[in-house]
Amino acid sequence: MKKRLWLTLSGLMGVTLNSHAIEQYSLVNESHVWPKVQAHLLNPKLDKRAANKLEQRELTVNYQAVKTIGANGRYQHYQVYLGNIPVLDNRFVLLVDKAGNIEQGLGNALLVEEGFSIPHPAPFKLSDKKIKEKLVQRLHTDGVAFVSEPKVSKAFSLEGDDFRAVFVANVITPSNRVNLIVDAQSFKVLRQENDIDGFSSQQSFVAGGGIGGNEKLGAICYSPAPASMQNCLSYKFDPADLAASELLFTDPQASLFSDFSGYPFVVSKQQGVCTLENPYVKTIDYIGDKMRAASYQCAGNNEHFEQTSVDDQYYDYFSYSGVNDAHFNAGLVMQYYHKLLAEMYPNQQTQCDAQGFCLKQLVQNVGNNTHGNSQANWDDTYVNYGTGNYGGTHYYHTTLDIVSHEASHAVTYWNSQLNATGQDGALNEAFSDIASIAVFDYLSQNVSGSYAHSRAFNRKSLDSDTNHRGNRKWWFGWDVLYEDTGGRYFAMPSWDGKSIDHFKSYNPSQSIYETSGVFRKAFYELVKTQNWSIQDAFKLFLRANINCFFKGMSVQDAGMCLIDQASYFTHKGTNNEVKQQIDATLHSVGVVAQNSQLSTLDFEGSIQYDVVSYTLSTVPANQIKAIKVEWGDGTIERWQKNSATAIHAFLQRERLVNIDDLIRFKLSVLKTDNTELVGYRHYYSRAVQAACPPVQAQGQSSLSSITVNDQQIPLNTQPYQSVLTDTHVLNKHVQQVVKFDSSLNGKLVSVLLDNNRDGLFSDSEMMVSNQTITNGQVTFKLKDTISAGIGLMRISLGGQYAFYDACGYAKASQIVDLKADVEIPELPLEAGFTYQIAADNRVTFTNTSQVNDIRQPRYTWRFGFDNQGSTKKHPDDVQYPFVDGNYTVNLRVDYQDDSGQFDEFSQQITLSAPAQCEVGINNPSNAQTIYIDEMHLWTSIYSRHLITGSSGTNANGYVKHQTNLEFKDSLELNVDIRSNVLDEGTIDNLLNRDNRDVRFTIWLDGDRDESFQVGEANYYDVNSNYTKDCRNGECRIKASQSIRLPWISWWKSRKYVLRARLEEHPTSEHGSDGCRNFDYGEVEDIEFTVNGS
């Protein structure tokens, strides 16, 4: 879909740009656009003439190649520029065939009319020094704290209908590193984006090693050979500690550290000093030396072990040696990437190639707490690892999960340069999370020694088909956390309480970590449901990252890119079969790629503890031929058209499933035209019970029973209890009544209902909040947001209920949790509507019918004239004739489930002929005093149109001209007039600069309602628009105004009316007198045609 933009440049104060159109096109499936894009492409090797042109004063749009990659150069990456200045967030990828013809496009491209250019913004001509001075001054004024001099570059930002000249300032703040997008004129910060991705002489290289690990993992001896790290093997911080485990690693197929059989703890050694640096990894002990790689005195076995340092670090951080962990793990990660990339791009001769991948030395700062101790990040130059918060919740951030994640941000930066914000920022995070799983799998396949049999390794490796919640192999960050939990999850990303499992749950306000759950889940399902190995699944994402991921891409773009890699995985099946596997996996998490071959079914689904339900309302029931429900527990249910079963039972349905089970739900609909629609949802079932008991102080236990809606519930005499054997029905349409002993009068009662069925109670789920008991009972209505189904109800009696803890807190109370079933009985079908009459006989109808939306109600309106009607629930405004009349309006409502149920409702409305927007002079004898004697309309100074008949006037002071004039849409329409001959002194008085007493106003009836409102008038009315025009001894008033013509589609033409009003001594506010009479002056209406362009 194209978007028309009129260019203004906020960085160019007072500069008016030519009215050239620039249009933004989506490239996906828009083959007619691709040749236009090719015409603007610039080769990476620009000739000298083209390069010089980019530096000229006038800036033109061009696309500069970023990289070309893939077989036969299939993936061509481009950045949009104005001259040699980039336009932010405007990259795209062209997918070409062997002959260089475009097969597909990803992203958006800007296209301009031939000859379009804009001036070089004045602020861009300032010296770099001056720009930085102004920026620093403004940042100080605005209170923006930073700790180093900003790095500044020039750019344009496309914002709505404007190009804005901006500076991009890369700034390190006290908390993180950010890019500030700064207005080039005012230096005001427009927005902020994270720039950190997070959670010599000839040397000889040798295999080193030493102690690592933390309290949870135990002491680990990174060892190039059995029993080679003796200091580590014999070390115990406390005599009661378990002995250290030995980690041996070999991979004969890896070429990166092939001299050491793939062992990755490789260091340089000179004159008895070992340095934690090799061509692929440089490890800096940031606390000791912020520039040079860490080093140590090494004997024959090259072991890095300094007991005092190990003791101190474990005492402080419950981690043995962050630098050893980081060096081993980073070496393992870089070797893994090198191995995979060498397989995928066997012909690449260098480590960074614009036609392939890029892999550089990973430089890592260990113990860098600049942005907090419980963090790790990649800042476009270094990986930085915090020390952890002394083992309180986090250990040293140099564990394998963390190093894999952050090193993968570096790989992404060297290749696709995905953002750290937006949808591509979520993909960036997901890729790094996915890499942590793949690297651990690589370790698992090649590790040996006692560590391979240690309790920590076995716990981390757990991957069971029955104990999903315990599968630590699919947890990210378990190894760095004190608790037995993960930082993020793959089987069900939502287990972290924030991430989404399905893209249907996406909203732009989510963090990139929350949105990244979609791709984590896709990776997991590719392995678990499509039976891909972890290595193959990771290669899919890695190849896409190299080939066609790009900065600013959308989730749908990423899906298309992933599917397009299918030809590289034909060992998994034919090209089409592999595409189907990837496509189905992406669909299962709600990612619908532009090249998808599947039709998506949109439906509402949910799980309430152990009850799965769905609602299907997006497909009309009369268009459904068959429904297939795969509940995810092995149960399949079907419905067929013309069967004995009514369809409405399959439009909304639920099923009880086993608890603690991963439910892969699938709903398929076959339409009557034989189109199949498929939708997926994944859930995790859990028992109906509170996630944790409330925290209580001075708990009470005096009540032996309570009554809920006349159902008595016996209680044990204890402060808290969960009574889940019986289910208590709560009818949403009626009042709920809870009764208890009258001895509680004067005390407090709170009632909560776990509406989101997560086993926890929040303040938004309070039905009754600390209400004083007066008559031994409490009554309440369920909130409108409460959904039907099984849930938990908590009743607190006695004291104050609060939320100091996630589990709830109560003082001097007795608390009981009950199993409740919220019912929402179907109300009878009743048709109904209200209406509102506007002044111009337009009527707005509001549907008030009482229906069951699940059964897909159908609405049939009859408006009582000219056989006009509608099938919308809320019809558009209805324009009735401009005459007096009575009209009978009828609404019929029925269901589309073949039940035959319907209801009708009729009302009679009475309308009167609306008052027209007619104007005239109050006293006809004043008509000759001042009037319009000449009028021209024009959009080009070379083509001014005289309005025939504009000279002279009549006794009414009003005339309408129906012309054959035609103008193109969106142009500026200018209206010039000259008055009748007036006394020169009169004109001087009327045009007095301090008190002008004449006004010329124009209106364009944009909504064509035959009325001229304030918003339809010319915007400005300044003195400079009026002049005295004297010729041959006769003087007249000359006035001009302009107004923008509306934009309309290129294939359409529309009639519009312009009203021109010249008035002496106006009494109303400017623009508000379009339909008012006047004492002195004239009004003329001009009808003309506007054509789309």
From TrEMBL:
SUPFAM superfamilies: Metalloproteases ('zincins'), catalytic domain (SSF55486)
GO terms of biological process kind: proteolysis
Superkingdom of origin organism: Bacteria
The keyword Protease is annotated on this UniProt entry: yes
Alphabetized InterPro entries for the sequence: Ig-like_fold, Peptidase_M4, Peptidase_M4/M1_CTD_sf, Peptidase_M4_C_domain, Peptidase_M4_domain, Zinc_Metalloprotease_M4
Sequence ranges assigned to domain Peptidase M4 in this UniProt record: 265-412
Ligase among keywords: no
Signal sequence segment: 1-21
UniProt KW keywords: Hydrolase, Metal-binding, Metalloprotease, Protease, Signal, Zinc, Zymogen
Ranges where the Peptidase M4 C-terminal domain occurs: 416-591
Gene Ontology molecular function terms on file: metal ion binding; metalloendopeptidase activity
Family: Belongs to the peptidase M4 family.
Name by which UniProt lists this protein: Peptidase
The organism of origin for this protein: Pseudoalteromonas aurantia
